[in-house]
Design goal:
The chain is an alpha/beta fold. It has one domain (4-174). The protein has helices spanning 15-24, 49-58, 73-85, 97-106, 113-120, 141-152; strands spanning 4-8, 29-32, 62-65, 126-130, 157-160, 171-174. It is globular.
Length: 177
């Protein structure tokens, strides 16, 4: 039975702070909700699927890829259009209402929280939902976390390795949804 729900992004973190946050939160199940499981360039190589899966295995953390929770290209395009009007994806602090409405209608309304939890499995206790954006409200993973936390009556926390004041440790933000 799940006892804690977290989310985490990779942008602006380091390999040390990223995996440090997972250890600090005692994560046992890592749920990748990206469509494409890679990040361009060497800076975030630890977030590319093969490297990430091996690093998690070495830490005793189960890795799952739930691609069905990733927004498809048409929904991502809704957000990209908004991002362009504010200077690009790097300036995004929250998802647009149009993106949220489309994601909830096309993805979250078609899969129950119980079905998501069944895919995660009964062995999971402390899960983290993963995508790339560092700010949780700028990423669809916060919408998945909100759905699961409402169903389980748990409070979702967002691990933010990039925002730790001394460059180590992990800042935890409350659920904004």
């Amino acid at each position: 039975m799940i006892e804690a729900i977290y989310t985490i992004g990779v942008y602006h973190s380091t390999e040390e702070t990223f995996f440090g946050c997972l250890a600090e939160a005692r994560i046992d199940t890592f749920v990748d909700v990206r469509d494409r499981r890679g990040v361009r360039g060497p800076l975030y190589r630890y977030a590319n699927a093969a490297y990430l899966q091996e690093a998690l295995r070495k830490r005793g953390i189960t890795y799952l890829h739930l691609r069905e929770l990733a927004p498809p290209a048409a929904i991502r395009q809704i957000q990209y259009h908004v991002d362009e009007s504010v200077g690009g994806i790097r300036h995004r602090t929250k998802l647009s209402q149009d993106f949220v409405a489309a994601y909830e209608h096309d993805i979250l309304s078609k899969i129950s929280a119980a079905a998501i939890l069944e895919k995660i499995g009964p062995q999971a206790r402390r899960i983290v939902l993963f995508c790339v954006e560092d700010i949780p409200t700028a990423c669809h993973r916060s919408l998945v976390a909100a759905k699961l936390s409402a169903y389980l009556k748990l409070h979702a926390q967002h691990l933010m390795p990039a925002h730790a004041s001394d460059g180590s440790g992990c800042v935890q933000a409350d659920d904004a949804h």
